[in-house]
Amino acid sequence: MAVHITTKWLGDMKFESTNPSGNNLTIQATPENGEQAEGLRPKALMLSALAGCSGLDVASLIKKMKLKVEDFKIDIDANLTEEHPKHYDKVTMSFHFYGNDLNEKKLQKAVDLSVEKYCGVMEMFRQFSELTVETHFYKS
Fold first, then answer.
1. The whole model's pTM is what?
2. What are the residues whose beta carbons fall under 8 Å from the beta carbon of 16, sequence distance 6 or more?
3. Are 51 and 117 found together in one domain?
4. Calpha distance 140→127 (Å, rounded)
5. Which residues, at least 6 apart from 105, have a Cβ–Cβ distance to it below 8 Å?
């Protein structure tokens, strides 16, 4: 399946990028000369894409498995190399599930399926980064 986006320069250090869903996003470097920080930074956007990809997988599996989850979030900590081209060489992804009736075994299976099978962004990250995935459960 071919995907097409267009990224247009808006001047200074700011771009607008189309998305196949029809929603545009602003990409911007660190604000300079008093500019307002309106956009997302490219490398941080990659981490958001990783969390979003895996999160959507897990949310879909929670629905299919009819699991009771009050809330969940994904935290990502990443190490950016010092040398150019700077890239993430180590990434830790932590899933946090909240609820009084959590099926920890099935939730772990949902995370594992995303990590090992479904999340294409995760597979891309594996090409250049050491990935660690953690799962945490909390009673509400």
1. 0.91
2. 7, 8, 10, 24, 25, 26, 27
3. yes
4. 37
5. none
**20, 75: one domain:** no
Amino acid at 107: L
Instruction: Say whether both 77 and 59 belong to one domain.
Output: yes
Distance CA 27, CA 100 (A): 39
Do residues 19 and 53 both lie within one domain?
no
Domain CATH number, residue 128: 3.30.300.20
- With CA atoms as reference, report the closest residue to 137 among 92, 93, 100: 100
What does the pLDDT look like over 36-82, one tens digit per residue?
777 899 999 999 999 999 999 999 999 999 999 999 999 999 999 99
Long-range CB pairs of 10-17, under 8 A, 24+ apart, other chains included: 14/38, 14/39, 15/39
Q: How far is CA 84 from CA 29, 39, 92, in A?
A: 16, 23, 22
Domain span including residue 71: 42-138
Q: Give the CA count within 13 Å in the CB-facing half-sphere of 14.
A: 12
| Burial 42-56, CB ≥16 within 10 A → b, else e | eeeebbeebbebbbe
